[in-house]
Amino acid sequence: MHKKNKHKEDYNFDKLIEVSPELKAHVFVNKYEKQTIDFADAKAVKALNTALLKEHYNIEYWQFPDTNLCPPIPGRVDYIHHIADLLKKSKISKDITVLDIGTGASCIYPLLGNAEYNWKFVATDANKKSIAYAEKIIIKNKLKKEIQLKHQPVAESIFKGVISLNDKFSVSICNPPFFKDEAEAFEATTRKLKGLGKLTDAVTRNFAGQAHELCFKGGEKAFLHTYLYESSLFKTQCFWYTSLVSSKDNIKSMKKSLAKLGATTVKVIEMSQGNKKSRVVAWTFLTEKEQQDWINK
User: Fold this and answer.
1) Measured distance CA(84)–CA(90) in Å, rounded
2) Is CB count within 10 Å lower at the N or C end of the chain?
3) Which pTM value belongs to this model?
4) Beta strands 120-125 and 147-151: pairing type?
5) Is residue 47 in some structural domain?
């Protein structure tokens, strides 16, 4: 994990239960005499994440349907810290505004980015119900001035329809859908639960998630190449475009496409949380002069 990640050590369940009593029902002592939860249980995972947000990020309200994707806080905040490093190295330190693509019902990246770095956000989603739940979270936590929501009217589009030629963003972030369809998502869940020793006839994801949150026609690779192409249509609207990339096999084709599209710099930032490995790909179309002008504005 990133050195600034607050979740590098074991969870303090006593403190977490103190701020979020609902978590208590899911905590037990395992065979190693340590407090834990059943990480294959979606409700337990959601209760833990809710408590983490209250204890560490001052988020008092975080409610959305159990069927919606419940993102793991440690992994999500890791992305935020790596983006902060990227901006710092680029000498971008003032008036930071982040474009969050596919914010979901949880609105997790804007909540964490604002709490940790006081960034402002424009968060988009193609699903109107997700936007409605995210808006309620923003209002309840008094973040209307810091986080703006935009509905993406065309589900197959990324930037078209939500970004204008006059917009300026320090960075875009995105956690793309991993699967090409629900069948592929089901297979992945089955493998994961089997590894946890929790495989039953009733297979459910421990992080939940609906089809529009998890799937994109053609899978992660198709989504990423749409993302790359559309970013090239708005070359000067964003200093850095970034995305999480689950499959390292996609990196080579991304670099090849970005070279053709005119990216001036491409970076691959490795990330790890325990045994899980992922990476962030970041790219910019700005020339050195344009980058300097942006910094000096």
Assistant:
1) 10
2) C
3) 0.88
4) parallel
5) no
